[in-house]
């Protein structure tokens, strides 16, 4: 006996696991963190059309904050962000609860609410641009019904164009919130509902006081996902408003890409990108903190 | 005794009227929501079936008088993008040849990585996964320029391998997470039993783990296909002029402002671009929902 | 032929020490049972023997050869898992032959071995089914079959019966025992069920907190538990453990209980030593008229077990179990006087929790 026992140490399968993992992991990590580091580095240089490794301190950041276009973009991120996240959350939760009431045609409705998520932001943007276009879209339609004074020209108004982005964004992403929250609702023990019925607690009150608080972690996940979309939003702006009228719907993501590839302001763009990175890190840290606090509470 | 008792019950009729009002509100809300979600799509379809003259004359809500596919044919093969007037059909082919290697590679690698990370004792598996996922959360804008430089150093910038590599790199984290979560649910004893049976890393993967991964592979494929197909920014920058996929061609087609904008053609082109993921969505149903929520629920 | 030696095995996960300086000698053809509560380290020890888990220090020898770094597949072992771990995508036949194919055995050999194992376990009609189409008991048999076809000289069982219902468990227990006698191989069997341990083992290793408390035959473990833990773990209900202090009276040491005194022949511990007296429920009996009682207490409750009746009695604030014949239990006074069989009493040192040897 002692077939293979004789002390030869064989190539262990665990090593194969590590070796298989290595190439992709190393490439990915270099691609991510290498680029992030590089970008941060470049934001402190005088790089213009090409990267130049000449230390410039915070010059690019000072320049960034003196650009009115960046101010608009940065402010827009918060306006768009708050309305988009809030809108998706409220609408998505409402949809999930409504669909969860055992309504007829539930599957159909869910598919209908979720299909925009399968579309690219480019498609979404173009569809809404067409619908909200004052000369041919909704405004023209209502006027043709006889309401000559009807005005719905948000798309071409520098002050209100940002809200059209919110409408399109909410249209695209509420379904995601619905799907996630609906899954969360399904995971709630049915005995909770029975207990509520025995106690005679109205449904609305049940949702507000019992069910939604139980779903806080799920909602938090939604907020993080949506907030990430806000920081990344590029396609939607390009397709819908092109950043206009003027620069009124510019967002940091678009500002950075434009400065990188059209205006050849690599240093400035890197500074903008670094600010975006900070925004993401703040979001992640905040959500991590909230989770930590929630867990620490008994 | 009976009188005292019955006073403690509330009349059922009062309850019923409340319930009825709630029901009405519920269905009203759902109906409005359904309109909100369907109108853009319906308008796109109806516009794409109209003639140019009809689009100018009628309102967005008017149904096409003589529905026809003229706009679709134009969008497919004749519409002008910049100065070339070949429609977006070329973009479809580009999208497909970007899509296939990107999804196959990223799903395959993610499955292997997920398997290694969750079922084998890889040191610091948690940290590796976290590092990958954190990278996936960072906006492309932060990494894009250095990546352009890296890609041109390696010599793949502006080429098919370039865009595929970028898609794989950005696709792997979330897909790996999905596979990890699934494989963590498998009994670890299965791997132990196979090791006692003398099977190695790849043999266990091929013979035991892969045959059990059917559903999760579908989920990952759907997620990957929609992501790659709908991508705009990465393709715009990394694919190079000859490989621009449909989304990019669509955006430039609509953005081409030569002459009067042909809304019907634009809408047809938009629909053609949206059709593949939309069909995938309709056909895959539950898997799709699992895909879009998978990363969220456990991540 | 496989004889296993474990020397000073240590394993910890982070701050948690799962195995502490474990040493064990398992003889050839032995049926060794590793018994202990969940989390005691018994499964970790089995995994280390299988080569599925590495030790941090110490060594494992198979027939005197160190097996560190030898892959599980090369250790000439067969293993049965708690969840059976059947490959769900393969038919029963392929489940059995998978390991043999990996070894690249000739097809005819594989066929012969699979048929032999299937016949032995009476699963021949199931060979072409998928595991999902099998009942719990059938899966269990397939899992054993998968270990058998390897014709190993060492078989490892990790709580193989804990997912079965009570009736099947008894049935499979008998089969496993028969299998051991028939194969003449060494078996190592992990369980938390003391009935399995007592019925199957040639020797039992009782493990607690990563330490082997006792490694001995079932009789020895039951009659002469080596520590308070073993005494309190083995037996249903376990041994009554009564705190006491050693006193001596005219050179004769006796145990001073909370109320009353107990003469223990052969007790030699020093005056004032704190001890624990252990008495099995069946080693207590009712006193005859006029006989001096060792323990006196109030009856709390009587549990009818069938062959005998378990009577719980409160003695000085402590519950004590007494096993009585049903007819005796029927006519109990509210207060009973008990007598212990003197030569079956165990004594433990309260400080070290180890058994104190009596000079008999």
TrEMBL record, chain A:
Q: Where in the cell is it found?
A: Cell membrane
- Membrane protein topology class: Multi-pass membrane protein
Gene Ontology CC entries for this record: plasma membrane
User: Which residues does the UniProt record annotate as the domain ABC transmembrane type-1?
Assistant: 74-287
UniProt cross-references to SUPFAM superfamilies, sorted A to Z: MetI-like (SSF161098)
* UniProt entry tagged with the keyword DNA damage: no
Give the record's family classification: Belongs to the binding-protein-dependent transport system permease family.
Please report the name of this protein according to its UniProt entry. Sugar ABC transporter permease
Query: What is the organism of origin for this protein?
Result: Thalassorhabdomicrobium marinisediminis
TrEMBL record, chain B:
Report if keyword NADP is assigned.
Answer: no
Q: Which residues cross the membrane?
A: 21-45, 92-115, 127-148, 160-183, 204-229, 263-283
* Major site of localization recorded for this protein: membrane
Its annotated compartments are: Cell membrane
Q: Name one GO biological process term.
A: transmembrane transport
**Membrane topology per record:** Multi-pass membrane protein
> Family, per the entry?
Belongs to the binding-protein-dependent transport system permease family.
Record-linked Pfam families? BPD_transp_1
Annotated GO CC locations:
plasma membrane
ABC transmembrane type-1 domain mapped to chain residues: 92-284
Q: Which residues form a coiled coil?
A: none
- Record the organism: Thalassorhabdomicrobium marinisediminis
Q: What is this protein called?
A: Sugar ABC transporter permease
Recite the UniProt keywords alphabetically.
Answer: Membrane, Transmembrane, Transmembrane helix, Transport
Database matches in InterPro entries: MetI-like, MetI-like_sf
TrEMBL record, chain C:
Q: Which residues form the ABC transporter domain?
A: 4-234
Query: For this protein, what is any one GO molecular function term?
Result: ABC-type transporter activity
- InterPro entries xrefs: AAA+_ATPase, ABC_transporter-like_ATP-bd, ABC_transporter-like_CS, ABC_transpr_MalK-like, ABC_transpr_MalK/UgpC-like, Mo/tungstate-bd_C_term_dom, NA-bd_OB-fold, OB_MalK-like
Under Pfam families, the record lists: ABC_tran, OB_MalK
Q: Which GO terms describe its biological process?
A: carbohydrate transport
Determine if Cytoplasm is one of this entry's keywords: no
Q: A Gene Ontology CC term for this entry?
A: ATP-binding cassette (ABC) transporter complex, substrate-binding subunit-containing
Source species, domain of life: Bacteria
Which SMART domains does the entry mention? Answer: AAA
Enumerate the UniProt keywords alphabetically: ATP-binding, Nucleotide-binding, Transport
The reply on keyword ATP-binding is yes
Q: Which family does it belong to?
A: Belongs to the ABC transporter superfamily.
Q: Please identify the protein, giving its name as recorded.
A: ABC transporter ATP-binding protein
Q: What organism does this protein naturally occur in?
A: Thalassorhabdomicrobium marinisediminis
């Amino acid at each position: 006996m002692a077939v293979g026992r004789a002390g030869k140490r064989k190539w262990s399968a665990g090593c194969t696991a590590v070796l298989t993992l290595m190439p992709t992991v190393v490439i990915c990590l270099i691609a991510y963190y290498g680029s992030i580091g590089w970008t941060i580095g470049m934001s402190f240089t005088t790089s213009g059309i090409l990267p130049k490794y000449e230390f410039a301190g915070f010059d690019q950041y000072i320049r960034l904050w003196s650009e009115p276009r960046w101010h608009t973009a940065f402010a827009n991120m918060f306006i768009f962000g708050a309305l988009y996240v809030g809108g998706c959350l409220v609408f998505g939760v409402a949809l999930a609860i409504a669909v969860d009431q055992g309504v007829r045609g539930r599957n159909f409705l869910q598919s209908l609410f979720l299909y925009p998520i399968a579309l690219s932001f480019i498609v979404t943007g173009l569809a809404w641009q067409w619908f909200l276009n004052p000369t041919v879209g909704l405004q023209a339609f209502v006027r043709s019904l006889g309401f000559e004074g009807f005005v719905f020209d948000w798309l071409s108004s520098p002050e209100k164009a940002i809200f059209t982005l919110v409408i399109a964004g909410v249209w695209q992403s509420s379904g995601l919130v619905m799907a996630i929250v609906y899954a969360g609702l399904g995971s709630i023990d049915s005995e909770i509902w029975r207990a509520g019925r025995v106690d005679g607690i109205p449904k609305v009150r049940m949702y507000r006081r019992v069910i939604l608080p139980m779903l806080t972690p799920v909602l938090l996940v939604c907020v993080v996902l949506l907030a990430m979309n806000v920081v990344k939003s590029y396609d939607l702006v390009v397709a819908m408003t092109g950043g206009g009228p003027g620069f009124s719907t510019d967002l940091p993501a678009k500002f950075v890409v434009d400065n990188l590839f059209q205006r050849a302001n690599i240093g400035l763009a890197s500074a903008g990108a670094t600010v975006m990175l900070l925004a993401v890190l703040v979001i992640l840290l905040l959500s991590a903190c909230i989770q930590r606090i929630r867990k620490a509470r008994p | 005794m009976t009188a005292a008792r019955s006073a403690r019950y509330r009349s059922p009729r009062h309850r019923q009227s409340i319930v009825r009002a709630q029901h009405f509100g519920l269905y009203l809300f759902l109906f409005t929501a359904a309109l909100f979600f369907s109108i853009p799509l319906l308008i796109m379809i109806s516009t794409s079936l109209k003639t140019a003259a009809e689009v100018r004359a009628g309102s967005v809500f008017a149904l096409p008088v003589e529905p026809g596919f003229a706009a679709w044919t134009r969008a497919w093969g004749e519409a002008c993008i910049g100065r070339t007037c070949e429609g977006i059909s070329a973009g479809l082919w580009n999208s497909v040849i970007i899509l296939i290697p990107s999804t196959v590679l990223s799903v395959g690698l993610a499955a292997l990585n997920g398997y290694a990370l969750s079922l084998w004792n890889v040191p610091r598996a948690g940290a590796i996964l976290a590092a990958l996922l954190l990278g996936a959360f960072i906006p492309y804008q932060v990494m894009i320029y250095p990546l352009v430089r890296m890609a041109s150093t390696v010599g793949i910038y502006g080429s098919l391998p370039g865009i595929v590599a970028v898609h794989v790199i950005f696709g792997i984290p979330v897909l790996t997470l999905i596979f990890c979560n699934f494989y963590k649910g498998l009994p670890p004893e299965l791997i132990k039993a196979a090791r006692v049976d003398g099977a190695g890393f790849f043999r266990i993967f091929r013979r035991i783990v892969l045959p059990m991964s059917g559903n999760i592979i579908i989920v990952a494929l759907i997620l990957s296909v929609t992501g790659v197909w709908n991508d705009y920014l990465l393709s715009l920058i990394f694919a190079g002029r000859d490989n621009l996929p449909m989304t990019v061609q669509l955006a430039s087609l609509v953005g081409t402002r030569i002459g009067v904008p042909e809304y019907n053609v634009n809408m047809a082109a938009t629909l053609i671009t949206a059709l593949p993921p939309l069909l995938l969505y309709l056909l895959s149903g539950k898997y799709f929902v699992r895909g879009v929520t998978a990363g969220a629920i456990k991540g | 032929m496989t004889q296993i030696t474990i020397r000073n095995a240590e394993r910890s996960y982070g701050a948690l020490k799962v195995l502490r300086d474990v040493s064990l000698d398992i003889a050839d053809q032995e049926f060794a049972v590793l018994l202990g509560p969940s989390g005691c380290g018994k499964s970790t020890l089995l995994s280390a023997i299988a080569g599925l888990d590495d030790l941090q220090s110490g060594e494992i020898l198979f027939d005197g050869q160190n097996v560190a770094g030898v892959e599980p597949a090369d250790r000439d072992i067969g293993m049965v898992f708690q969840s059976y771990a059947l490959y769900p995508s393969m038919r029963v036949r392929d489940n059995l032959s998978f390991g043999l194919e990996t070894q690249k055995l000739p097809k005819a050999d594989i066929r012969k071995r699979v048929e032999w194992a299937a016949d032995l376990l009476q699963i021949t009609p199931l060979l072409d089914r998928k595991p999902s189409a099998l009942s719990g008991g059938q899966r269990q048999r397939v899992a054993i079959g998968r270990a058998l076809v390897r014709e190993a000289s060492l078989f490892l069982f990790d709580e193989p019966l804990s997912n079965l219902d009570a009736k099947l468990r008894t049935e499979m227990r008998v089969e496993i025992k028969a299998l051991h006698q028939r194969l003449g191989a060494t078996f190592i069997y992990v369980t938390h069920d003391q009935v399995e341990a007592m019925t199957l083992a040639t020797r039992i290793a009782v493990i607690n907190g990563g330490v082997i408390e006792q490694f001995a035959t079932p009789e020895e473990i039951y009659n002469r538990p080596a520590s308070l833990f073993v005494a309190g773990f083995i037996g249903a209900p376990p041994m009554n453990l009564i705190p006491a202090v050693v006193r001596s009276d005219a050179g004769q040491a006796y145990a001073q209980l909370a109320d009353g005194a107990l003469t223990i022949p052969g007790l030699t511990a020093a005056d004032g030593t704190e001890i624990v007296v252990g008495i099995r429920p069946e080693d207590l009996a009712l006193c005859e008229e006029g006989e001096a009682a060792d323990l006196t207490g109030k009856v709390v409750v009587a549990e009818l077990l069938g062959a005998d009746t378990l009577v719980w009695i409160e003695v000085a604030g402590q519950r004590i179990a007494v096993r009585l014949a049903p007819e005796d239990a029927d006519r109990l006074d509210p207060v009973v006087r008990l007598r212990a069989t003197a030569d079956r009493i165990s004594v433990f040192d309260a400080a070290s929790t180890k058994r104190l040897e009596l000079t008999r």
